[in-house]
Structure formats: C-alpha cells, structure tokens
Amino acid sequence: MKIKTLSAGDIIDSRCTRCRDILNHRIVAMVGDKVARVECNTCGSVHNYYPPPTLRSTKTPKKDTNTQKTRDVPRSSRSADRRTDREEWLTLRASINPDQAIRYDMNKKFSANDVVAHPTFGVGMVKSVTVPNKMLVLFEDGVKLLRCK
Description:
The chain is built from 1 helix and 9 strands, in the order ββββαβββββ. The protein is mainly β and 149 residues long. A 5-stranded mixed beta sheet has the order 5-6-7-8-9. Strands 1-2-3-4 form a 4-stranded antiparallel beta sheet, with no helix packed on it. The chain is elongated and about 85 Å long. The chain starts with 10 loop residues before the first strand and ends with a strand. The model has no long low-confidence stretch (mean pLDDT 84).
C-alpha cells in the first residue's frame, strides 16, 4: 500500500477555528513535510492547522480488591442541609429586627449573632466568624460565606 505525501492544495481534515468543528480543509502552506496553514472549505477562513483529535484507547477498569467499601460517617445530602438551614432561619426570623441590621460591607468587622443587611441576599444573621476574614451568614436562601474584616 502506497502512502501519499501531503502537499499544498490537498484536502485534509482539520479543526476549524471559526466553525468549531472538524471539517474538510485545503492545505495552503507547508513547512517541510508538515502542514502549517489551511483554508476551511465550509466558511473560507484561513488559519493554522489543528489536527483532529485522535481516538484514545479505552483502558480497562482496574478490579477493586476491596469490593465492600465502608464509610465511617454517612453522607448527608445537600437537600437535608438546606432543610435544616431553612428550619433554623424560620425560628430565627421572629427574633430578627431588620431595622437594627448592620449594612454589609466587606471592610467591616462582624461578630457572631450580628444581624446583617446584604444588598443581594437580604437580612441574615452571622453564625460564625472564621479566620482569615470570612464569616458564615444564615440568610433565607441558606448559609453564605462572606468576606469581612
């Protein structure tokens, strides 16, 4: 079987930068025996040659010697976390006075149990202040991690 060497004017497959797909291209320029630039036969754009991706060989998955995986702590779902946050918010909502809320500013210092008025999330209560300069705030939407001083 004879393999044809590529030359300018030949048609090859390449990834088109404008069409974002693997399409037929005409070779415009070559450097040595390597294709340098091509012209898309679909949209007409001239660009560097990007060869189509090669198919990767599929690897067989390794057999797990420990077929029974154990977990010390069962995982909790996010919906369960949201549910508990929602219940906590409903109990705290009655005790929160929005008029006494401190306007949120990431350059202010906050402490636990401060009531914060955030422009996007609304009124919330600081659950904890963590190092370095972050705080967990319980809003109606859930707990958010905000920056503080």
